[in-house]
Amino acid sequence: MIALEPVKTLRTINDLAKSIVAESGQFNLGVVQGEDAQMIEGLELARVEGLINPILFGNKKKIESILKKLNIEKRVYTIVHTESQPSSVLQAAELVVKGEIDILSPGNIALPEFFRLLFDKNCTFRRRGDFISIIGVMEHTSFEGLLLISDVGLVPDPTVDEGIRIINNATHIAKLLGINPIRVGLLAFEDEMTPNSPTTVAESIISQFFQREHDPSIIVKGPIRLDQAMQPDALPLMPTGDIEPGRADILIANNIHSGNSMYKAMMTLCDAASAPIAYGGRCPFALVTRSESPQNILNSISLCILVAADETDKGN
């Protein structure tokens, strides 16, 4: 489902998710290691709104104890008892492969360990050609509309090929949100390629790749400084046809450290709201970890519903 008009608020994403659920029914969301109170509070927001049927994998007694403390009836949650993190991941992944889980989430488990277990040779989740990256969809009073940042937590030091795939994942999410054209800024400390800076060389190659693609809906500029990318007339430098200059819709960090730091700085120092999502695999991933507020968890789940519905429409 692609929004007909550009989505400018996270609340609109939530409203679109409600519309999808009203037509197609609740989405099954599986959480690996569901023993975390703050995470369950976020799930409960989505459950009360009728968006999801939550399935928690982990220690049943611990999960039931948390539900009791939060005054949530345990009967409204499906709990699958597991003895270990690998068991939780494998069982949840199996249900995704069978089509019984639509959205998957890492709960009280470190993100690198979650994906390491998910991509293990003993797990059938990963398909040939899958490439997963994390996109933070941000909302803040300092800019109009939504801002996407990637990769914020999964790809350590992207190669040129990985950088292209990170952009492809992010632009797919932007298209679902009705953004057109999509302006992408490849962040660096300067605006020109310099031979002694591997980052600017790689970003120049990536920018040239997208220029050769001749897709007028995607404008990629790099390298570019953050302050330049957020100027109202940053991209394109020379408007072509009906495309007017505008600020970047997507900021691509040159490594996981700068991406993650920028994403978390916006939330912790600037009080930005977010809808984080891991995209590019067999199903979308809602990021419901304890570092996210309950409201951001709801935002993440709502965005995943948009993605899952779109994948279902395409028969993926």
How would you describe this structure in keywords?
316 residues, alpha/beta, Rossmann fold
Describe the structure.
- The chain has 10 helices and 11 strands.
- It is of the alpha/beta class and 316 residues long.
- It has 2 domains: 10-130 and 281-314, Rossmann fold (3-Layer(aba) Sandwich), CATH 3.40.50; 133-257, Isopropylmalate Dehydrogenase, CATH 3.40.718.10.
- The strands form 2 sheets. A 7-stranded mixed beta sheet has the order 8-7-9-6-5-10-11, sandwiched between helices. The chain has a 4-stranded parallel beta sheet with strand order 3-2-1-4, with helices on both faces.
- Strand 10 and strand 11 form a beta hairpin.
- Helix 2 (37-48) packs across helix 10 (294-314).
- The longest helix is centred in the last third of the chain and has 21 residues, at 294-314.
- The chain is globular.
- The two termini are 13 Å apart.
- The model has no long low-confidence stretch (mean pLDDT 92).
Radius of gyration in whole Å, from Cα? 20 Å
Low-pLDDT segments, ≥5 res: none
Total E-strand runs = 11
Shape: globular
Mean pLDDT: 92
Q: Order of SSEs, N→C?
A: HEHEHEHEHEEHEHEHEHEEH
Short description:
This protein has ten helices and eleven strands. It has 316 residues and is an alpha/beta fold.
